[in-house]
Amino acid sequence: MRDRCQRLWETDLSGVLTDPFSLFVICLDELWLQAQGLVRAVGGEFNKMERTALDLATFSTESDADSRHDFVGLHNIAKHIIYLKENSEAASMTMSHLQTFHQELLNHPPQGHDAMPTMQMTSQMLAQKAVQFEVWKLRMTSLEQRMQNIINLVNTL
Fold first, then answer.
1. Cα–Cα separations (whole angstroms), residue 114 to 60, 100, 107, 108, 117
2. pLDDT tens across 66-96, in order?
3. What is the Cα–Cα distance from 123 to 117, expressed in whole angstroms?
4. Most buried residue, 25, 92, 95, 145, by most Cβ within 10 Å?
């Protein structure tokens, strides 16, 4: 984030001065990148646990299956999924409010100079971020459902 802001400072700032909401786009993009790294990490750990649970579902005795389930690990992954889902929903709501407010500004641009092209570009970038946050939310909903399925499977063994 610091590097991106430094590069911005070293380039033409007229777009930022015309529409400061473009700074939100940078922050939102960084948030998206950070979130995707976390989702990948949690998803990777979950995939290992899911594979183990599915493999253990083939055991014929309950004691064999129970002895190998990592219940603490399942709990921790479930907790991280819940936190990431909450964050995705909060980011989506924030994005929606930013878009609404920016649209109000776009409907009444500042007088005296041609800010419309810059503001329209910012609006398009905000719309792209909104789609990315919706995708994040969908991924978390899917991961949460998969986690619930594994918990149900482990509980029935």
1. 73, 21, 13, 12, 7
2. 556 788 888 999 999 999 999 999 999 999 9
3. 10
4. 95
How remote is the C-alpha of 129 from its chain's centroid? Answer: 10
**Residue 101 CB neighbour total at 10 angstroms:** 13
Higher pLDDT, 96 or 116: 96
Number of Cβ within 10 Å of residue 76's Cβ equals 14
Question: What contacts 53, CB < 8 A, 6 or more positions away?
Answer: 69, 150, 153, 154
- Residue 53: both structure tokens together: 């649970």
Residue 141, helix vs strand vs coil: helix
Please, are residues 78 and 120 in contact by the beta-carbon 8 Å criterion? no
Are 103 and 119 spatial neighbours (Cβ–Cβ below 8 Å)? Answer: no
Convert the pLDDT of each residue in 133-152 to its tens digit: 999 999 999 999 999 999 88
Residue 36, SS3?
A: helix
- Concatenate the DSSP letters of all residues of 56-109 into one string: HTT-SSHHHHHHH--HHHHHHHHHHHHHHHHHHHHHHHHHHHHHHHHHHHHHSP
Q: What is the pLDDT of residue 14?
A: 72
